Every structure is written in C-alpha cells, then in structure tokens.
Amino acid sequence: MSTHHSKRHANTAGRASGKSRRAAQISAITPGGLLKEKGEALYESLRETLERTSLGKVVAIDVDSGDHFVGDDELAADDAASAARPGRAFYFRWIGVVRVPTRLSLG
Questions:
Q1: Partners of residue 90 on adjacent β-strands
Q2: In this structure, is residue 74 part of a structural domain?
Q3: What distance in Å separates the CA atoms of residue 6 and residue 107, rounded to the nearest whole number?
Q4: By three-state DSSP, how is residue 92 classified?
Q5: Domains: count for the chain
Q6: Fewer beta carbons within 10 angstroms: which end of the chain, N or C?
Q7: DSSP code at position 32
Q8: Do the domain assignments include residue 24?
Q9: Which residues constitute the domain of residue 9?
Q10: Is 90 helix (H, G, I), strand (E, B) or coil?
Q11: Does the pTM of the predicted model rise above 0.70?
Q12: Tens digits of per-residue pLDDT, 19-49?
C-alpha cells in the first residue's frame, strides 16, 4: 500500500466544480453507501498506523486498491489521491477525529 503526503497547493481555481462532478459520479456508482462501508472497513485496518503518524489530518482511501493518501485537509488529500489515481472513487475521513458540530444554548 502506498502512503502519500501532500501540502495544499496555492492554485485552487476551478477545483470546486471538478470536485462536484466527481461527487456526482461517486454517488451514481455507490448505491446504499457501499463506498462508505468499504472505506470505513479499510480505515479500520489502517487506523493504528494512521493515528500514530497522521492524527488530525485527512486520509483519502482508494476503495478498490486500499491505497491511501494523507493531507492536512480534504483538498490536500484529494490533490494527492487524484494525482496518483485519476478517476477513482475515494473515501475521505479525518484521522482519529470525529468532527461534530457544536451547539451552545444559553436559555
């Protein structure tokens, strides 16, 4: 399995539309959350190593090969994954962190 680290590139123009197209393609080929199930299973097999070396970063996992790509954020992980495996379906996940919206109620 390959692990690739990437830093955010300064040139991000046009990235949102490309990412939206890929999200639509992934949705079309993964009915019933199959991508999420495969991605989570692969993440679990990588969890110990990823949490020891890249805690708080984002991993993009190629659900077909199991190859994974780590970045400081989603865009960096996507850049690394897409450069190495263009057109593939990736599962993205924060490493060791579950980001949950917080809510404060004062009344």
A1: 62
A2: yes
A3: 44
A4: strand
A5: 1
A6: C
A7: G
A8: yes
A9: 3-94
A10: strand
A11: no
A12: 555 554 444 455 557 888 899 999 999 999 9
Cβ distance 94 to 88 under 8 Å?
no
104 is a domain residue: no
Residue 9 has phi, psi (to 5 degrees) of -90, 145
* Residue at 90: amino acid letter: F
> Could you tell me if residue 33 is left (phi over 0), alpha (psi between -120 and 50 degrees) or otherwise beta?
left
- Kindly tell me the burial class for residue 107, based on how many C-beta atoms sit within 10 Å of its own C-beta (0-12, 13-18, 19 or more): exposed
The pairs formed by 78-82 with CB atoms below 8 angstroms and a separation of 24 or more are 78/19, 79/6, 79/8, 79/9, 80/4, 80/5, 80/6, 81/4
In this structure, what token pair is assigned to residue 99?
């980001």
In a domain, 43, yes or no: yes
Is there a contact between 41 and 106 (Cβ–Cβ < 8 Å)? Answer: no
- Residue 72 neighbours by CB under 8 Å, 6+ apart: 6, 7, 8, 57, 58
pLDDT tens digit sequence for 42-94: 999 999 999 999 999 999 999 999 999 999 999 999 999 999 999 898 999 99
